[in-house]
Amino acid sequence: MNRFGIEVYSGKVYKKKIIFDRPFFLPHSCILILKSGEISFERQLQFSNINTPILTFIDREMVYEFSHISDDIEAYIIAVSLPFFDAVSKKINTLNLYNFFKANRGFHYDLSPFQVDEFFNYSIALQTIINNADNHKNVENLLKVMFEGLLYLFSDLIDDLDHIQDKMSRQELITLTFLRNVEKLFKEEKNVRYFANLQSITVRYLSATLKSTINKTAQEIINEFQIKEAMALLADTDHTLAKIAEILGFCDRFTFSHFFKRNTDISPSKYRTYFKNKHSLH
Length: 282
Prior knowledge:
Strand content: 15-25%
Largest sheet: 5 strands, antiparallel
Radius of gyration: 20 Å
Number of strands: 9
Low-confidence stretches: none
Number of helices: 13
């Protein structure tokens, strides 16, 4: 990240930087604006295959696993630091847009041809200012003003979210709520009954719903959240196994190691040795 707290990448440049085919943490949160081409990735067990114009938020606190970015990709990715994002979004209104993005991460906002052109124009302008920073006396303020304009454009899309969620079936809403609850709490809570109680439904009904919608049991989903997080922590950090066990809510590193090997057929130490520093996102 540069000294301004904001970077802009074209889709083709970002493809060269991204890590493929293993869970990992991005170094910075991003706004992705796709015009054409295709992107496939999994975010906390939710698979997305995007091939139409959209805007979406990619959160650095979540585990991602990219499987495909097409060669003909036309996209811009705007990576921002939290201080930069907060400094701009709080000027717009009382809505903390960063928290809004986080609450709705994984949701893709469809863009009309006119909207995608507007977002592209702002992205190009931001990239040009960054590339020519030495020619501007007030470059930081200029970048904030430009990014502020982009967020104003985004605010026009927010109302669409409630409209779409109103059309969800009860099973779809239970599944979405379960996934969001697990996403927030899987490090502290591993009991299926706890998550069923959060929605005032039985464990049996929750499991039947999940089996119907995504063909996985509640416990399988909770375990996968932990495994994906563990894989990213092993490959992308220098935390000891004891520290990773603590982060994920295991009583000790031995319990964590047994859980990891039982679910992956490889020990956490061997997984780390294979992937550590094999790839890096600059």
